[in-house]
Write a structure and sequence with these properties.
The complex is a heterodimer of chains A (about 260) and B (about 130).
Chain A: E1 4-6, E2 9-13, H1 26-38, E3 42-46, H2 57-74, E4 81-84, H3 93-97, E5 102-105, E6 108-112, E7 115-119, H4 127-131, H5 133-149, H6 159-165, H7 173-181, H8 194-204, E8 210-213, E9 220-223, E10 229-232, E11 241-246, E12 249-254
Parallel strand pairs in A: 1-6, 2-3, 3-4, 4-5, 7-8, 8-10
Antiparallel strand pairs in A: 2-11, 6-7, 9-10, 11-12
Helix pairs in contact in A: 1-2, 6-7
Chain B: E1 6-10, E2 15-17, E3 25-40, E4 43-50, E5 55-56, H1 58-63, E6 70-83, H2 84-93, H3 96-123
The chains are: A alpha/beta (about 260), B alpha+beta (about 130).
Chain lengths: ~260, ~130
Amino acid sequence: MITNVQEERLIVLSDMHLGSFFCQPQRALARFFEFACDGRWNICINGDGIDVIHTSLGNIVRETSQMLARIRQVMPAETTVYYTIGNHDIILEQYLHTWGTLRLVPFLNVQSGATRIRIEHGHLYDSFFMNHGALQEKMTRATTYLLKIYPPWYHWHRLPRYLKHRSTTLPIVGPFFKRRFEPDDGLRIPGQKPAFIRGADELSRRGFDVVIFGHTHQAGVYPLTTGARYMNTGSWFRDPHYVTIDRGVVELMPWSL
Amino acid sequence: MVTFHDERTYEDGEVIVSEGEAGAEMFIIQSGRVAVSKRTADGDLHLATLERGDFFGEMSLLESQPRNATVRAVGPTKLLAIRSGELLMKIRRDPTFAFELLQRMSGRIRLLDEEIARLSSLSGSRPQIKTLP
C-alpha cells in the first residue's frame, strides 16, 4: 500500500456523507468535480464520503453509483482519486475497493514542493468514538429518527451560541453550555474537542508542515505549537470547505452548496 | 498525562549513532537529513540517505541489540528521540505511526527475501531457512 506520495496539485474534501437522508450534496459535488477537472487537480476524499448510518441500502447504492459515474465521466483518465478511510467507511472498504477508480489508503503523506502534508480522516483522535464506538453508533442511529421528525435538529451545535446570547435570561445554563461546547480557551477550532489539536500537534512532530483532518464537521485552520498548521475541511451537511495543495501552498477554501 | 518530547539537534557530519554501540532509542527526522553507513573490509559503505519524516534506530529499540549501522547528520538536523516506554505512548497518541513502522519492517523483509533469492540463484545453492520457534 502506497501512503507516501508526491503531488503538485491536490484537492482535499471530506465528509460528503453520500446516501444520508439529511445531506444532499449531489448537485454541488458534481459542480465540484467539474471544477477539479477543469483545474487539473488530483483529488483526495478524506473519509466519510458515504454514510452508512443515516441512510438506507437503496440510498447508498443509488447515490454512490451516480457519484462514481460522475467521477468517471468528468475526470481525465490520468486523474488520481485517493480515498482515505473514515469511521463511516470502514465497513465499506471492500465495496469501495471494487470500484477500481479509487486508491484506498488509511492516511496519506503528501510531499508537495517543499511542504510535507498529512491527510487523515481524524476519527482516531475522537476519544468518544474510540472508547464508546458502539454507544456512539446507537446515538447516531437514534438521531436519525429525531432528524426525520425535525431536520433542523442537526444544527443543535448552534444551541450554545444561542444560549450565550440569552445568558442574561439563562444565567446558569447559558455559561455552562458555552464552557462545554464553545470555550474561549484558544485550544480548538470552535465546536471541536482539543484532542484533535493534540493529535495534529503530535503528528506534526514527525516533520509535517500541515495536518488535514475531517470527521468533526467543523471547518477551520489552527496554528500548532510546532509551527505547523492544522486544517479541517468540515462537511457537506452545511458550509462545505476544501483544501487546495498547489506546489507546496496549502489553503482552506469555502465551497457554496 | 504528561507529554514529553525529547528533541535533539545535530550539526553537519555529527555522529548520531555508531555501529556496534548499545542503543535503546529510535529517532524520527523532524528536519534535515541523515546518512546511514556500514563498515566493510573496503571502508564505509553508504547505505541510504534519510529525509524529513523518515525514522531509524527502531531495531535497537525493539530488540535491545547493538546498532547495526552508523548514522550521521547531513547539514543541520533536528530529531525526535523515542525510547521503548515512549514508543507505546507515541503509538497511543499517534496510532498511524505504528502502521508506518510495520510498513517499514515489511518492506525490509521483502528486500531481504529478494536478496536471499538473488544470492542463492548466484551461488546455485538452496538457502537454509531458519524458522523461529
